[in-house]
Automatic annotation (TrEMBL):
Domain of life: Bacteria
Protein name: histidine kinase
Organism: Pseudoduganella violacea
Modified residues (4-aspartylphosphate): 61, 467
SUPFAM superfamilies, per database record: ATPase domain of HSP90 chaperone/DNA topoisomerase II/histidine kinase (SSF55874), CheY-like (SSF52172), Homodimeric domain of signal transducing histidine kinase (SSF47384)
Catalytic activity from the UniProt record: ATP + protein L-histidine = ADP + protein N-phospho-L-histidine
Subcellular location field: Cell inner membrane
Chain segments annotated as coiled-coil in the UniProt record: 128-173
Chief localization: membrane
GO CC annotation terms, alphabetical: plasma membrane
EC number(s) on file: 2.7.13.3
PANTHER family per record: HYBRID SIGNAL TRANSDUCTION HISTIDINE KINASE C, TWO-COMPONENT HISTIDINE KINASE
């Protein structure tokens, strides 16, 4: 056993000769029995030693000046750490019964009378040293067992975490598999309708009415495809924290009323009883994103409510919050699904026909957008047996904004600027040129960046619609070269791109563009963007420096 682990014996005696004799006698057996001997010449010194070391046994002289043996024993056993140290009293006098009783009351385990018989001393000491060693061994085993138990508990916790992580991964993989299947279904349906409608238009003998109907189907299904792509990209940006909000004070009640009017106008709410009860509720938020939140909640309610059902929307102020609530009379939410309705790709029970459609990402996007506004969203339902469901959004309230005058849009319609379209996709270029021509614009077009620069230099258009992903030189380089040329620097440059992140907008504006539009471009937004440029006849002489970039237009996301 290492020296540091050897049991220690404390010998306490005020008489130097007696102390030397006892310690010397004990030292003869110290190596054999593997213990150490510590000496103290008073009760006070003994207490100091007890504060420093643990002892297997204490040999304590009874008759000492100052603090005698009984007082010393009492003081030693008052300390919890040393309360169990066995004490053998040593005395030159034969102790009577009262002295023995007093000694035992102070924690004595035995008496030794001087002169001490070596064999008796050895026998008694050996017992306590052996006990101390066994006790230390038991403590060591207990520590090892405790450590082993701790290790096993930690291993079990790791194993349980791994099992749970594996189950979560399996659930996520299953959800992703289902999502991919749903995505394929959701994409094929509108693509099939578009393909059929396009084929119908080209058939001989088709009536004008059928052609018109086919065009409406193409427009509607194209919009549906655009919304699917928008949802996917919005969710990706929201989950990665790349959505930047365009915050401004707005009335949430007015926004809700506008959304419901759009649903009624487009026929999306036909067959449902939708009511709105709202008071002016001002929040600081992004109007586009808040409208997206409400649209997703309405779409979810329509999806799980049978025609003829009721949908109630309310908006009110509660203390420092604005509370928007949407309640439907639909199928409701099953208890096991309720905690997960805002998770990605989670949907209620779906059937093979997928009549309701959807990707299961709308509510996940709702939660993230609400959180970006500093609010919270919760779902409530009494079950999935037709009890309906309620979604409640809480947003921080703000002060009402004074009503500003509407912009005079007539000034944007006073001229027809000449337009240059630089687009490498032949079908896209042809359709955009035809559409702009139908609106009365003179259109020049180019299939790549270098050709676009040449056309711009010769035709001197008022507006250039430039695709970013061009062969040869990209749209950024086209913009930089147009701005560097005094003959073309006054052209209004509008970027057309499938990338709609905030950094994409910054890169577009840094390259010299005036505006950033995301494909597919809404025709109204495009007409507004083009109409903001003066015609060649009205244009002022080119400035000596580049035209400063204006604020980017709001456009739906695409890729």
């Amino acid at each position: 056993m290492p020296k540091a682990d050897k049991p220690k014996i404390l010998v306490v005696n005020d008489d130097a000769n007696s102390l030397f004799a006892l310690t010397s006698l004990l030292a003869q057996w110290a190596e054999q029995e593997s213990y150490e001997v510590v000496a103290a010449r008073s009760g006070e010194e003994a207490l100091r030693q007890v504060l420093t070391h643990d002892f297997a046994v204490i040999l304590l002289d009874v008759n000492m000046p100052g603090m005698d043996g009984f007082e010393t024993a009492e003081a030693i056993h008052q300390r919890p750490r040393s309360a169990d140290i066995p004490i053998i009293f040593i005395t030159a006098f034969v102790a009577d019964e009262l002295d023995r009783l007093k000694a035992y009351q102070q924690g004595a385990v035995d008496f030794l009378f001087t002169p001490v018989i070596p064999q008796v001393l050895f026998a008694k000491i050996a017992v306590f040293v052996t006990l101390a060693m066994k006790n230390e061994e038991l403590k060591k085993q207990a520590r090892q067992l405790s450590q082993r138990t701790t290790d096993l508990i930690a291993s079990n916790e790791r194993l349980m975490r791994e099992i749970e992580e594996r189950k979560t991964a399996e659930r996520q993989n299953h959800a992703k598999d289902e999502f991919l299947a749903m995505l394929g279904h959701e994409l094929r349906n509108p693509l099939s309708a578009i393909s059929s409608a396009a084929s119908l238009i080209g058939l001989p003998g088709v009536s004008v009415e059928a052609v018109g109907r086919a065009k409406q189907i193409i427009q509607r299904q194209s919009g549906h495809l655009g919304r699917i792509v928008d949802d996917l990209l919005d969710l990706s940006r929201a989950m990665s924290g790349k959505i930047l909000l365009n915050r401004a004070p707005l009335d949430l009640a007015a926004l809700a009323a506008s959304c419901l009017d759009t649903y009624r106008t487009t026929g999306r709410s036909a067959g449902y009883d939708i009511t709105l009860a709202a008071e002016p509720c001002w929040v600081e938020g992004d109007a586009t994103r808040l409208e997206q939140i409400l649209n997703n909640l309405l779409d979810n309610a329509l999806k799980y409510t049978q025609p003829g059902g009721q949908i109630e929307v309310t908006a009110e102020v509660e203390d420092e919050d604005v509370v928007l609530s949407l309640h439907d009379s639909g199928v409701g939410i099953a208890p096991e699904l309720l905690p997960h309705v805002f998770d990605v790709f989670v949907q209620g029970t779906s059937t093979l026909d997928r009549a309701q459609g959807g990707l299961g990402i709308g509510l996940a996007l709702v939660r993230r957008l609400v959180e970006l506004h500093g609010g919270s969203v919760t779902a409530h339902s009494d079950g999935g047996g037709g009890e309906g469901s309620t979604f409640v959004i809480r947003l921080p309230r703000t002060e009402r904004l004074p009503v500003a005058k509407d912009c005079d849009m007539d000034s944007l319609q006073q001229g027809k600027p000449a337009v240059l379209l630089i687009e490498d996709n032949e079908d896209g270029r042809e359709m955009m040129s035809m559409m702009l021509s139908c609106y009365g614009y003179q259109v020049h077009h180019a299939a790549d960046g270098l050709q676009g620069l040449a056309v711009a230099a010769s035709a001197r258009p008022d507006v250039a619609l430039v695709d970013i992903g061009l062969p040869g030189i990209d749209g950024y380089e086209v913009a930089r070269r147009l701005r560097a040329n005094p003959a073309t620097r006054q052209i209004r440059l509008i970027a057309l791109t499938g990338y709609g992140l905030a950094e994409d907008q910054r890169r577009v504006l840094d390259a010299g563009f005036d505006m950033h539009l995301v494909k597919p471009v809404d025709i109204d937004n495009l007409m507004l963007a083009i109409g903001g440029a003066p015609s060649a006849a009205e244009a002022a002489p080119p400035a000596p420096a580049a035209v400063p970039a204006s604020a980017p237009a709001t456009a739906s996301a695409g890729h």
